[in-house]
Specification:
The protein has 876 residues and is of the alpha+beta class. Among the domains are: 101-141; 166-358, Penicillin binding protein transpeptidase fold. 33% of the residues lie in helices and 10% in strands. The chain contains 26 helices and 20 strands. Strands 4-3-5-15-16 form a 5-stranded mixed β-sheet. Strand 18 (692-697) and strand 19 form a beta hairpin. Helix 6 packs across helix 14 (324-343). Mean pLDDT is 79; it is low at 1-5, 12-35, 37-41, 45-53, 70-87 and 777-876. Residues 69-85 have a biased composition (Gly residues). This is Penicillin-binding protein. Residues 766-776, 792-823, 834-853 have a biased composition (Low complexity). Residues 824-833 have a biased composition (Polar residues).
Length: 876
C-alpha cells in the first residue's frame, strides 16, 4: 500500500511516537500473530516532558472507583468526565454480599430501583407468613365473649284484653322471641336483604364484601358487606365504634362462631332479636308491633321484606308514613328484597308478581313516644301490682327491670276510652275551676267489672300520670262509700237474721221488714241498751247523752219497709238493722263480697251506713256479686304473664265463691232495681235497660257515689274533693253549681253515659226473678246456717256519726229509763217483723229541726224524695 493512503495516526500521534514502540511489529509477535496487550502511555517520573510509559489495564476495583468518580486509576479523562459518566454506567466490580439486593446491583436508572421478581415473591411470602402467624395466634387466643348487658335488655309489653293489641311498653322496647315464632318466609326475607349465603358461609363472606364495595362504587343497590353472623357479633358482643381492631375482632369471632361456636339457628335468632329497626323498636317482635301492630309470627312475607329493609336505614324508613322520599326509597328496597327472594328460590316469580300487584305494605302511623299517657299509666301500674302480688315473690321490680315479660291484661280499650270520655263530658258540662273556686281539686274515680269472672274492664284513675297526677282514684282508699254500703247490710240481715231480744233469738229479715225511719232516733244494742254518745258532734240534739242518728231530712215517716228505706236512702232503719244483725255478721258479708278488711271501719255504728273506705274497684266488685247471683269473683286485672315465650305458672286461676245464696243476692238486686225505678237513682233510667244501683253521699258532701249494674257489667263512680296540700277531703257544696252534691247527679251522669257505650253491642238481659225468701241463711251448697251473735259496744268517741232508733223489748217497754219515741207507740217486736206495724207518720217528734250542718245524706237528688239520707262521716 502506498504511503499516501496509509491511515493517519489516531489522536494526533505520530507513527513513530512512543506508542508504536509499545505495539511492536507483526512479525516479531511471540503470540503467534496476535496483537500484544494494549498499554497506555503515561508520564514517567523524571522523564522528559511528553514522554509516557506503557500503562497496564485497570483492575475491577479501580474501574469501580473510577465509575464512582473516586480516581485511583483515573484514566486520562480527568475528574470532570468521570463524574458525568458515573450515573449512566452500571456498577462494575465484584457483586457485593447483601441480604437484600436493593437497590439492585449491576442495574442503572429506573431498573436499579425496580425490585426483582425474587424480591417481590420473597417479600410477599414473608408478609403472608407473618400475617398468617399473627392471625392464627389471634384466632387461637380469641374466644366468644359474654354478651353486652345492653343487648340483653328487654321491655315489658302490656296487652289489651284481646291479647294482640299493645297497650304499653315499659323499659327497653325489645321482646325476644324464638326462631320458631318467626315464619320461614320472614327469615328468608332477611337473608335476601343482608346475607344470601348465610346458610352456607363460615361466618364471613369475602365475596359479599367485594360485591358491597362494587355496588357502592357503581351506585348500585345498597347491601351490607357484613354477613348476618358479623352483624350479630357486632350487636351482641362488640361496641359500635368502628375501628380496625374492632373489625378484626368481629371477623375472628364470626369465624369462630361459624366454625361451630353456635348453630345457624342460634345466630339467626339472636340477630333478629337484637337489630334496631327504627321507631324505637329493637328486635323483630317490637318491629312487627311498631310497624304493623301484630306479633312477629303474624307478619306476611311482604311485610317482612320491608322490615328486613329497615335494618340498613332505620332512621329513614321509620318515616315512610309521612315522608314521600323515604317511602320511595323504602319501596325500591322492598322490591329488591323480593327479587332476591326469587333469585334464591325462596319464593316463586308468580308470588313476587302477586306481592308487587298488591303494592307496598304501608305500615301503620308512627306513634312517636306514646309513653304512659292518660289512663294507660294507671292501667300499667294496676296490672303490675296485681302480677307482683300474685306471684309468690317470683316477680319483683328487679326482674321487671330486666324485661322480657308479656302481661296480658283484662282491660278493654273501647271501654277505657268510653269511661274516660264520659268523665270528660261531665266535667266539661259541670266542672270549671276558672269560673267557680268550689270546682277546684275535684276528683273522679271509676271502675267497671265483669260480674261473670271479676275481670276489670275499665277504670278512670284521674287526668293521667303524664300530667303529674299519680294517685289512681279508682284504686285509692280514704273516700267513704256512704249509703252504697246499705245493700251489704240488707244481704247480711237476710242471711243471718236480726237479734232483737235478750235471749238472742234471730228473726228473719226481708225487704218488707219494717223499721223506724224517723230522724234523730236512738240506736239500741242487741241486749236492748242504748248507745252512749257524749262527743257533742251529732247533728241531732243529745241532751240525754245518748247517740241519736240523723237523716238528711227532718221528716218523721215512722215505720217503713227496708225496701222503702233503701229506695230513699234513709239512715235510721239501716243503722238499727246493722246493730240487730251484728258487727261481725255485717263485716263477714262485706269481706264475702270482696271488700278488704283494712278498708272497713267497724268500730262505730256509722259502719252500717258507709264510714268504710273501699276503693271504687272493690265496690264495683261487691255489686258484681249481687249481679252474679251471690257468686263473688276476686277482681282480676291480669289474665296471663309470659317470660320469653313461656307462660308463668304462678299466676292464680280465677277464684270464685258464694258470698250469699242466690235468693238473697237476687232479692237485693230486686230492691236496688226499685232504687233506679222510683228512688234516688232514677237518673240511671236513661240507660234504657234493666239496671240496679244505689246512690251514696257522705257528711257535708265530701264524697258522692253511684254504683250500678246490669247482668253483664258492674260499674262504680265516685266524686270527691281533696285538699292537695293537707290530703283531706273537703265539702263539695257548690261544686258544679249544685248547692248540695248528691250521688244521683254528676256520678250518675258518668255512669249512664259510660254504661250506654259499653253495653251498646250487647243484648238486653233481664235480671232473674227472686224466689220467695222464707228462711234464714241459704240452701246453697257450702253455705252453713248462721248463728246469732252478740256484738261489742262501740266506743262513745267513735259514735258521733250514728244515732239511735227507739225500740222496745219483748214486753213492749223501753230497754232504758228514757221515754220511748212517739213513733214506737203501739208496735211490738212481732208486729215489726211481721210487717203489721202502723206505718203512718207519727205525731210529735222534735219541736225544732236541728241544723242541717253535719247532717247525713243518702245520695238522693235534691229534687228527689224528702226522706233521702245517708251517714254522718267525719271529714275523710
Amino acid at each position: 500500500m502506498s504511503e499516501h493512503r496509509r491511515k493517519p495516526p489516531q489522536n494526533g500521534r505520530r507513527p513513530d511516537g512512543p506508542t508504536s514502540a509499545g505495539r511492536g511489529s507483526v512479525g516479531s509477535n511471540a503470540s503467534g500473530g496476535l496483537p500484544p496487550r494494549r498499554t497506555t502511555a503515561r508520564p514517567q517520573p523524571g522523564g522528559a516532558p511528553g514522554q509516557t510509559a506503557a500503562q497496564p489495564r485497570m483492575t475491577r476495583a479501580e474501574m469501580r472507583r473510577a465509575a464512582q468518580g473516586k480516581g485511583g486509576g483515573g484514566g486520562s479523562a480527568g475528574p470532570g468526565r468521570g463524574s458525568r459518566g458515573a450515573g449512566k454506567q452500571p456498577p462494575s466490580g465484584p457483586k457485593p454480599k447483601r441480604l437484600i439486593d436493593y437497590p439492585r446491583w449491576g442495574k442503572s436508572g429506573v431498573r436499579r430501583w425496580l425490585p426483582s421478581w425474587k424480591l417481590v415473591l420473597s417479600t410477599f411470602l414473608v408478609i403472608f407468613g407473618g400475617l398468617t402467624g399473627v392471625v392464627g395466634y389471634a384466632y387461637a387466643s380469641v374466644s366468644i365473649p359474654s354478651a353486652n348487658a345492653a343487648s340483653q335488655l328487654q321491655g315489658n309489653v302490656y296487652y289489651w284484653d284481646d291479647g294482640k293489641t299493645v297497650m304499653a311498653t315499659t323499659g327497653y322496647n325489645r321482646q325476644n322471641v324464638s326462631l320458631a315464632d318467626v315464619p320461614q318466609d320472614i327469615q328468608h326475607d332477611f337473608m335476601a336483604a343482608e346475607d344470601e349465603t348465610f346458610e352456607t358461609n363460615s361466618g364471613v363472606d369475602p365475596m359479599s364484601i367485594l360485591r358491597a364495595v362494587r355496588n357502592m362504587a357503581t351506585g348500585g343497590s345498597v347491601q351490607s358487606g357484613s354477613t348476618i353472623t358479623q352483624q350479630y357479633v357486632k350487636n351482641v358482643y362488640l361496641n359500635s365504634q368502628q375501628t380496625a381492631s374492632r373489625k378484626l375482632k368481629e371477623i375472628l369471632i364470626s369465624i369462630k362462631i361459624g366454625n361451630g361456636g353456635m348453630s345457624k339457628d342460634q345466630v339467626l335468632e339472636g340477630y333478629l332479636n337484637t337489630n334496631y329497626y327504627g321507631r324505637g323498636a329493637y328486635g323483630i317482635e317490637a318491629a312487627a308491633e311498631a310497624y304493623y301492630g301484630v306479633h312477629a309470627n303474624q307478619l306476611t312475607l311482604s311485610e317482612g321484606a320491608f322490615i328486613a329493609a329497615t335494618v340498613n336505614q332505620p332512621s329513614t324508613f321509620q318515616n315512610v308514613d309521612t315522608d314521600k322520599t323515604a317511602l320511595s326509597i323504602a319501596t325500591g328496597r322492598w322490591q329488591y328484597v323480593l327479587s332476591r327472594m326469587v333469585v334464591n328460590n325462596w319464593m316463586t316469580q308468580a308470588d313476587e308478581q302477586e306481592a308487587l300487584a298488591k303494592g307496598f305494605p304501608s305500615p301503620q302511623k308512627w306513634k312517636h313516644n306514646p309513653g304512659l299517657t292518660g289512663q294507660v299509666g294507671y292501667l300499667v301500674d294496676l296490672a303490675t301490682t296485681y302480677a307482683e302480688s300474685h306471684s309468690s315473690g317470683q316477680l319483683t321490680d328487679a326482674l321487671l327491670a330486666r324485661g322480657g315479660y308479656k302481661i296480658y291484661t283484662t282491660f278493654n280499650k273501647a271501654d277505657v276510652d268510653a269511661l274516660s270520655s264520659s268523665v270528660q263530658k261531665m266535667e266539661s258540662q259541670h266542672i270549671n275551676p276558672k269560673v267557680r273556686t268550689a270546682d277546684q281539686n275535684v276528683q273522679v274515680g271509676a271502675a267497671s267489672v265483669n260480674p261473670a269472672n271479676g275481670e276489670l274492664k275499665a277504670i278512670y284513675g284521674g287526668v293521667g300520670m303524664d300530667k303529674g297526677y299519680y294517685v289512681d282514684n279508682a284504686n285509692t282508699l280514704g273516700v267513704p262509700v256512704g249509703s252504697t254500703f246499705k245493700p251489704i247490710d240488707l244481704a247480711a240481715a237476710m242471711t243471718n237474721g236480726a237479734v232483737q231480744t235478750p235471749n238472742g233469738t234471730a228473726n228473719p229479715i226481708t225487704p218488707d221488714s219494717k223499721y223506724n225511719a224517723d230522724d234523730c232516733l236512738k240506736i239500741h244494742r242487741q241486749d236492748g241498751s242504748f248507745i252512749q254518745d257524749n262527743s257533742g258532734t251529732s247533728a241531732c240534739p243529745e241532751p240525754d247523752g245518748l247517740l241519736h242518728q240523723a237523716n238528711d231530712s227532718t221528716a218523721m215517716p215512722g215505720y217503713q219497709t227496708l225496701r222503702y228505706a233503701m229506695e230513699n236512702s234513709i239512715n235510721t232503719p239501716y243503722v238499727q238493722l246493722g246493730e240487730d244483725v251484728g258487727y261481725s255478721n255485717v263485716e263477714k258479708m262485706a269481706l264475702g263480697v270482696g271488700l278488704n278488711e283494712s278498708s272497713l271501719q267497724t268500730d262505730t255504728a256509722g259502719f252500717y251506713i258507709g264510714t268504710s273506705t273501699p276503693s271504687a274497684i272493690r265496690m264495683a266488685d261487691a255489686y258484681a256479686t249481687f249481679a252474679d247471683q251471690g257468686m263473688e269473683h276476686e277482681p282480676v286485672s291480669v289474665k296471663q304473664v309470659t317470660y320469653e315465650g313461656t307462660t308463668e305458672s304462678w299466676l292464680p286461676a280465677e277464684t270464685a265463691k258464694y258470698a250469699m245464696s242466690q235468693q238473697v243476692a237476687n232479692t237485693v238486686t230486686n230492691v236496688l232495681q226499685s232504687v233506679v225505678q222510683k228512688g234516688t237513682g232514677t237518673n240511671a233510667q236513661a240507660l234504657g235497660r234493666p239496671a240496679a244501683g244505689k246512690t251514696g253521699t257522705t257528711d257535708d258532701y265530701k264524697s258522692a257515689w253511684f254504683i250500678g249494674y246490669t247482668p253483664q257489667l258492674s260499674t262504680s263512680v265516685v266524686l270527691y274533693k281533696e285538699d292537695p296540700v293537707k290530703g283531706q277531703l273537703e265539702s263539695m257544696a257548690g261544686v258544679g253549681g249544685y248547692p248540695k252534691v248528691f250521688g244521683a247527679d254528676m256520678p250518675t251522669q258518668v255512669w249512664t253515659d259510660y254504661m250506654s257505650a259499653a253495653l251498646n253491642t250487647l243484648p238486653t238481659v233481664q235480671f232473674p226473678t227472686p224466689q220467695p225468701f222464707t228462711q234464714l241463711g241459704s240452701n246453697e251448697p257450702g253455705m252453713p246456717a248462721p248463728s246469732p251473735t252478740t256484738q261489742p259496744t262501740p266506743t262513745a268517741s267513735a259514735t258521733a256519726s250514728a244515732s239511735s232508733t227507739a225500740s222496745t223489748n219483748p214486753s213492749g217497754q223501753p230497754s232504758d229509763t228514757s221515754s220511748p219515741s212517739p213513733s214506737n207507740t203501739g208496735c211490738s217486736i212481732s208486729d215489726i217483723f211481721s210487717g203489721n206495724c202502723n206505718t203512718s207518720s207519727p205525731s210529735g217528734g222534735p219541736s225544732t229541726n236541728p241544723s242541717p250542718t253535719g247532717r247525713h245524706h243518702g245520695g238522693g237528688n235534691p229534687s228527689g224524695p224528702a226522706t233521702a239520707g245517708t251517714n254522718n262521716v267525719p271529714g275523710g
